[in-house]
Amino acid sequence: MISQWQLRAAFAVRLSEMYGREVPAYTTLVDVAHQVNEDTLRARGADAERLGSIGRVTAERHGAIRVGTPAELRDVARIFGALGMRPVGFYDLREAAASAVPVVSTAFRPVDPGELARNPFRVFTSLLTPADPRFFDAGLRSRLEAFLADRELFPPELLHLADRAEAERELTEARAMRFLHLAVQVFELSAEPIDQAWYEELERVSAVAADIGGVRSTHINHLTPRVLDIDELYRRMTDRGIEMIDTIQGPPGRQGPDLLLRQTSFRALAEPRAQRRPDGSITRGALRVRFGEVEARGIALTPAGRALYDRLLTLVDDEAARHPAADRTELARTLWAAHVPATERELAARDLAYFTYHAAPGRPRDGTRPPATIGALESGGWVRAEPVVYEDFLPRSAAGIFQSNLSGEGARNTGQEGIAYDSDWLSGAIDREVLDPYALYEHQRSRSIAAVGRELGLDLDGTRR
């Protein structure tokens, strides 16, 4: 029998192999990431594995896909449910970029720390919003929804196997191989000709809308390895002549613990696609929709830490507007140095980041009564703190990656009022609870504190005080 985590690991490997065949520059990206990781591990030793073993980091991937309807997203949830992945977080990209990006998103991933350690594969999944009148007028919305309703992305056999794997949490080897074959196949780039006029009409609204609603299939848009030093990777990819986007999205590189998520990518490549002209003839064209992203993961921030991060984003925007000739990255570094703690201990003391706590092997054993708070226990050497890896995404960074790889700005009618979407709406749309990432991180922390309390004979309440 093949368990869910084994299915998940095998799917990630097969998807990576497929994407490498379709987008050879992705293989180069993975090779450079491996080299950077090996060099970083040699230079930094055990400290390089502070946020995960090198085995986990090497195997780690996140993918990105896009679908058009809640029904399609429900089917996606069934497929990833088979792999032990649940929807976590709600991201509204419609307001996160200057370009028109008419999607809301969630991410499917494992949620148990043990499952994350085995294989942390995650898929950022975006849903088109045809009902938003800022992007789609009534006529285009009607035609778009009719087009989407008329297609089938996922074969019934795949969905049946997915439901079985989710219910039983395993599959026989034969069924597992069939499931993996079908699951990878649906995310391959289709050779079916694209309706040129329809695609271009949607592209005038948004290249993302065209990529979702202008074709009769879906595909993997990018597959992302994890790297320990993203600045060095950016330099090495550029030295190889591969065109990277203009910046690294997320927090600036700095002295101190890595926080949240930093991402960059090589630019979307012009890939040959067959296109059907209005007269029915087939021509060879090219589209730029797929790119190679890479990420460096840091420590998960608490709501207070995230509020500080968001405030710094605004401050950087304000400073950049006041000093247009200044280097934005340097402005960000200066502000971060002034406002963000440079050590894990201070991050924990100010409750800005999540840590788990564990009784220290070398703690006092002379009968001394331990202090009654987790902060005092840590400072007194009774416990050690381990950072919690940020497993999720940043809407502004995701939109920034999308925007950097779009062929145009698209169109948004700011005179119209947008449709409101939120996590509750998305949960109802896919018939599954979209989990709150903060609640997951808080559960990790509080569970570890409770375990420390039991081991030390203390009544700790599970919070950092």
From TrEMBL:
Keywords: Dioxygenase, Iron, Oxidoreductase. It holds the Pfam family HGLS. It is an enzyme of class 1 (oxidoreductase). InterPro entries: HGLS, YdcJ_bac-like. GO terms for molecular function: dioxygenase activity. SMART domains: DUF1338 (SM01150). Its cofactor is Fe(2+). Coiled coil: none annotated. Belongs to the 2-oxoadipate dioxygenase/decarboxylase family. This is 2-oxoadipate dioxygenase/decarboxylase.
